[in-house]
Amino acid sequence: MKTTVVRTCAAFLLAASLAACGFQLRGSTGQYNMPFQSIYLAFPETSPLGTELKRNLRAGDTVRIEDDASKAQALFDVLSESRGKAILSLNSLGRVREYSLSYTLVFRVRDANNKELLGPTEITLRRNIAFDESQVLAKESEEQLLYRDMQADLVQQILRRLAAIKPL
């Protein structure tokens, strides 16, 4: 009994000392140090992924998002963006039991002189979803929720890759 109290106190003191010294995981605040001050994002105006990426970049207060590519230090080119849905498994009657959803983005980053800072990069995310014929509307809503979750995850992966680019 006495040893568990001592261990608990020691764990609490360790946690308190780490919190007091300002320790935190890299990128855990959602803020990234980008190697450029301005960026042009070549997403269509109606792209939900582009909108979320812009929102996350603006939240950092260190990067300006330019509407004109000639004014930006970095150019983010979208080479392809696609969503997919494939049958993952069937039940004994040959009906779909499970789908595999995928979200793929291929992009590259160039500087103002057209020099590649980050070559063509593909990010593919996959999620599995169970299917039930008696709950079609609920499963469609769940599918849209999974795509939004993949989109948020994709934005975080893009931000990490942008932050890892060697300074200009």
UniProtKB/TrEMBL annotation:
Signal sequence, renumbered to the chain: 1-22
How is the protein disposed in the membrane? Lipid-anchor
Q: Which HAMAP family match?
A: LPS_assembly_LptE (MF_01186)
The gene from which this protein is expressed is lptE
Q: Where in the cell is it found?
A: Cell outer membrane
| Coiled-coil stretches noted in the UniProt entry, renumbered to this chain | none
In UniProt terms, what function does this protein have?
Answer: Together with LptD, is involved in the assembly of lipopolysaccharide (LPS) at the surface of the outer membrane. Required for the proper assembly of LptD. Binds LPS and may serve as the LPS recognition site at the outer membrane.
In the record, the note on similarity to other proteins reads: Belongs to the LptE lipoprotein family.
Describe its partners and assembly state.
Answer: Component of the lipopolysaccharide transport and assembly complex. Interacts with LptD.
The family database entries (InterPro entries) matched by this protein are listed as: LPS_assembly_LptE
Q: Which UniProt keywords apply?
A: Cell outer membrane, Lipoprotein, Membrane, Palmitate, Signal
Q: Which PANTHER family match?
A: LPS-ASSEMBLY LIPOPROTEIN LPTE
Spell out the protein name for this chain: LPS-assembly lipoprotein LptE
